[in-house]
Design brief:
The complex is a heterodimer of chains A (104) and B (169). Chain A has one domain: Helix Hairpins, CATH 1.10.287.3510. Chain A is built from 3 helices and no strands. In chain B, 75% of the residues lie in helices and 0% in strands. The longest helix of chain B has 25 residues. Classes of the chains: A mainly alpha (104), B mainly alpha (169).
């Protein structure tokens, strides 16, 4: 595939690369705040994909779906950070593998 | 021109994302994420999604990132920044990520050969915001209401979760 001109496939590859980086952060980091940021990266990769295909098919539906994805991402960030604050009050840590109350 | 802008925004997005994932200090991670989100906003603008461009900057960079920075300030992270940053199952994670990488590699080799060509340009006839509003309020009115309910529940839930418990004397 050539570097020029820019096609829909370029956007899909960029979205895949962003998803890869986000998934790496989510799976490998221990700090819960950084894991939440990695989830935002993954959702942004999805949005790039939706908008790219919205442009390709010349239909606005993909952009509407991207708005719904942003809504869910905001709700997720709010609830996740609320849980994080409550967790820090109880356990005094934000490291994911030190929070192992349900393990035995 | 289009290609130069695309590669500029793509580089900003990926560099910011890499900084988010690799930096030790969570404030640096948040700054990297802001850069990444701004790059994504530029990509939206390149694809004639003006409303999403504005929403991305106002909502993500203006709202969500401020929320993240407030939480970083509320929580003492000095000792967390000095600890080990990567969890113990990182080889398994790398193996899973390698599969995703292979898919991207194959896609980069072949492109999307089966994709039919784009139809006539009619995406923003009458304005991007107007088109999205038509679609959102006529076709997707019920999901729109469901999303507003979800946001309400999230607000109430976040406030309830983050409140300070009264200590019994």
């Amino acid at each position: 595939m050539s570097l020029y001109p820019i096609t829909t496939a370029h956007y899909v590859i960029l979205s895949g690369a962003l998803l890869l980086i986000g998934a790496a952060g989510l799976l490998m980091r221990r700090n819960i705040i950084v894991m939440l940021m990695a989830i935002e990266l993954i959702l942004n990769a999805v949005n790039i994909n939706l908008v790219a295909f919205s442009k390709h098919w010349q239909q606005v539906t993909g952009q509407v779906f991207a708005i719904f994805v942003i809504t869910v991402a905001v709700a997720e960030a709010a609830v996740g950070l609320g849980i994080l604050i409550a967790l820090f009050r109880h356990r005094g840590t934000v490291i994911a593998d030190e929070i192992d109350l349900l393990k035995w | 021109m289009d290609a130069a802008l695309f590669y500029t925004f793509a580089a900003i997005t990926l560099a910011g994302a890499l900084a988010t994932v690799t930096r030790r200090n969570p404030v640096h991670c948040a700054l990297g994420l802001i850069f990444s989100l701004l790059g994504v906003a530029g990509l939206f603008l390149l694809q004639a999604a003006e409303l999403l461009f504005a929403v991305q900057i106002l909502l993500y960079v203006g709202g969500v990132m401020v929320l993240f920075l407030f939480v970083i300030m509320l929580i003492h992270l000095e000792q967390a920044a000095r600890l080990r940053q990567y969890s113990r199952q990182w080889p398994v994670a790398l193996a899973a990520l390698f599969a995703v990488f292979l898919e991207i590699y194959v896609l980069a080799q072949s492109g999307l050969p089966g994709l039919p060509p784009s139809p006539q340009p009619r995406l923003n006839a009458g304005g991007n915001t107007e088109r999205i509003a038509d679609s959102l309020f006529y076709v997707y009115a019920l999901p729109f209401e469901a999303a507003s309910l979800l946001l309400l529940i999230a607000i109430v839930g976040a406030v309830w979760l983050a409140r300070k418990k009264e200590q019994p004397q």
